[in-house]
Amino acid sequence: MTSDTRLLVVQIAVATLVAYVIWKLILTVIRYRKYCEISRKIVLLGDYHPIWGSLHLFSTVTEYFDVVKKFIDEQRPKTYQGWVLFLYPNITVCHPDTARILLKSSEPKTKYHAGGAYRMIMPWLGDGLLLSDGRKWERNRRMLTPAFHFDILRPYVKVYNEVTNIFLDNLSRDNKRDGNVEISNYVTLATLDTMLRCSLSYNGNIQQEGKSNPYVKAVIRLSTLVLYRSIRPWLYWDWAFYMTSTGREFTKLCHYVHDFADEIIRNRKDALRQDPSQLNKRRLDFLDILVTAKDENGEGLSDLDIRAEVDTFLFEGHDTTASAISWAIYSLAKYPEHQQSIYEEVHSVLQDRREVEWDDIPNFKKLSMFIKEVMRMHSTVPLISRWLTKPLVIDGVEIPAGFSIDISIHAINHHPDVWPDHMEFKPERFSEDAITKDRDPFSYVPFSAGSRFRLDLVEGHKYVEVPEVVMRSEFGIKVRLEERHKDT
């Protein structure tokens, strides 16, 4: 190649690069003008900063939810926006009228958007039922339909009772030793123990290992890292995130939970390969269904698909449940009149029995209302998102395709136009009479037995909500337990 030819090649390459940059800049300017046009039509969350956008209003996720709560109490919006730096607006719906539009649509989750929480969680949970969409979701959901039948829970009541007995024994032991217990860790271990036993037939003495259980620690830390990244726009790009110590820690923990799931799957496949008749000798659990499921073409799930579903169920199945139970225990301790009423109902249903049976469950009317109110007050999953694949009119404003829209479940469950006394704890909101009135079905979005103790909160302890991937307590939930006798 002559020097003139080389020079020509370089000139063409430079010209192409310059043209590409100019084209990208033009698209960016057009997109930014569109952002500004939409922004003028939607109420802004607080004051706008020319550099930080809305990020100057808060420094943590907890502060963000506090700002939103005060803003909604004062402004009563159905939709609001907050700017991520000066780059783009983040639109959030916070009322049944606007949430309904997205929740009834088939729009996918925000795993395609750099700032989308679902995209940030994909390296951990994979493309399972929680995050997949379109044909893949439909195919896998069809294949796994037997796992979602309500009656599949019936044979596991014995397991629930066994896990609960270990849980209560641990609480009693440590309460006697320390005078109180921080219950979140105990609950998390119990729900993980339940999920592993029921869905994977795995009994690993989870609760006996206590706080040292590495899987629980990994899941909690992964949740924290996802939220840490979600409020730091400079970490939205993968190359930037994985260069940091936080990104490297996230990767290491992902490898750990994947190895944990892979071992369980590998052991089950080996066991079924050696003795296929096992499937005829016992009830099928979730992992059996995953391993043996076939679609209409006779094709099963790939190893990666199976792991994604296992990771999803181990996390979503135990962590969200642990959040709801922990806040339920907190509410029992905070509202002793409801605690006593529920205790009396449970005692009335069980009589002299110590364990719950399947047919008892419909008889826990007060307990059911109580749990629903707990999940309204302390929304298990505070925020979800959708990605628009086509233009959508929300609150009178046409939002173009390519936008990410957040749905603030916590804000909906606390919107003063829907729940005028939203900070008051009232289980009667969910009585049969109250529900049959003209209540919008989208006004309450909770989550897309036998007490043996009297519970009290620990004086001087701070109980602070932290809206991470699930609703946690910043300083834990400490309670003091007093053993009940039959007549109390």
Automatic annotation (TrEMBL):
Q: Which UniProt keywords apply?
A: Membrane, Transmembrane, Transmembrane helix
Q: Which residues cross the membrane?
A: 12-32
Q: Which GO terms describe its molecular function?
A: heme binding; iron ion binding; monooxygenase activity; oxidoreductase activity, acting on paired donors, with incorporation or reduction of molecular oxygen
InterPro entries per the UniProt record, alphabetical: Cyt_P450, Cyt_P450_E_grp-I, Cyt_P450_sf, Cytochrome_P450_Monoox
Indicate whether Secreted appears among the record's keywords.
Answer: no
* Keyword Membrane (UniProt): yes
Pfam families named among the record's database cross-references: p450
Which Gene3D superfamilies does this entry report, sorted A to Z?
Cytochrome P450 (1.10.630.10)
Q: What does the similarity note say?
A: Belongs to the cytochrome P450 family.
| Protein name, per record | Cytochrome P450
Species of origin reads: Pinctada imbricata
